[in-house]
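Memo to structure team: turn this sequence into structure tokens by end of day. - J.P.
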Amino acid sequence: MRAFISGTDTGVGKTYFAALLTKALRASGLDTIALKPICCGDREDPEALREACEEELALDDINPIWLPDPLAPLQAARLKGTVITREELLTWFQRISSGRQSVLVEGAGGWLVPVAPDLSMADLAVSFNLPVIVVVPNQLGCLNHCLLTVSAIRNSGLQVLGLVLNSAFSDDPSTFSNRALLEELTGLPVLFELTQGQGSLAVDVV
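Reply from structure team:
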């Protein structure tokens, strides 16, 4: 499996899901690695992905750009006095993914988060030419956020493989109807529904 993991917002469980999926795919015999090209703030997310990869790669290979300020990459890079380029990340991705059967790439924040003045997270996914999985928090408001995100991904020309519904957020009345409505309105399957404290995923590898 090769996929870009995006989300409807920051803090929706992208890393949590990416780590679970990486472990499940590796347990099924695939050579899966999980990458996070840009990390802003602490480095807990790429460290969790490295652990899921059984520490096969160095942290700087999993996460080549680390910016210490917990801000959008564009602003965090400006504070550090640097500019992120598409070319450096594409070169990194081609090097790390070459010959690899299964690669997951986790974005930072949501789909259109700015990375540089002329570069967004969406542009990176397009450059990597990966189909997309969207992580959605199961809570009031997720329908609008998910529909906007899916529409933007499709407008970018990439395939959306499906949705991941993270039900570890709240128990408001919408949580009981969101899954069916999301599948109906997007025409996409909910591939997984995550629950609080979930420690594994069941996957079918063909």
